[in-house]
Design a protein that fits this description.
This protein is an alpha+beta fold and 142 residues long. It is built from four helices and five strands, in the order βααααββββ.
Length: 142
């Protein structure tokens, strides 16, 4: 991916969307790696015993996917803030689409505010919403 030129950023710029299948093994591996081994995160049957329709994605995983999407878009920046609101469950088996948009550019501070969200690609339902601040480094002296 090409490097971002901070001076060219404007409110309304879209981040490149990212799509990935939230398959059961991927979710379970992530949940186990962060020691979130509740059955709702590791298998369908365990999730059903908890009253859910099936395995779901941990919120921490959604936030991690947001962070990696933002950092892939602007690898030279530093992610200084990320907040999320969980509106619906991200079920195992869906294709998730992570999208974002620049909502504010602060030229003197060299920072941008972004909105970012995860949606179910098939239904278009937005499952998780977030906001983030990225701090860009000072330009090199010439």
């Amino acid at each position: 991916m090409a490097s971002i030129n901070f001076a060219d950023l404007e409110a309304g710029d879209d981040l490149p969307p990212r799509e990935l299948k939230l398959d059961s093994a991927f979710i379970a591996a992530h949940a186990n790696a962060i020691d979130m081994t509740a059955p709702r995160f590791t298998d369908d049957e365990g999730a059903r015993r908890e009253g859910l329709p099936g395995q779901i994605t941990p919120g921490a995983m959604s936030m991690g996917l947001f962070a990696t999407t933002l950092m892939a878009w602007a690898p030279e920046a530093r992610l200084t803030r990320l907040g999320c609101t969980f509106r619906s469950l991200a079920h195992a088996g869906i294709v998730a689409r992570i999208c974002g948009m620049v909502v504010e550019v602060d030229m003197p501070r060299r920072s941008v505010e972004c909105e970012i969200w995860m949606e179910d690609k098939a239904s278009g339902d937005r499952l998780v919403f977030g906001t983030a601040t990225l701090q860009f480094p000072d330009p090199p002296l010439v």
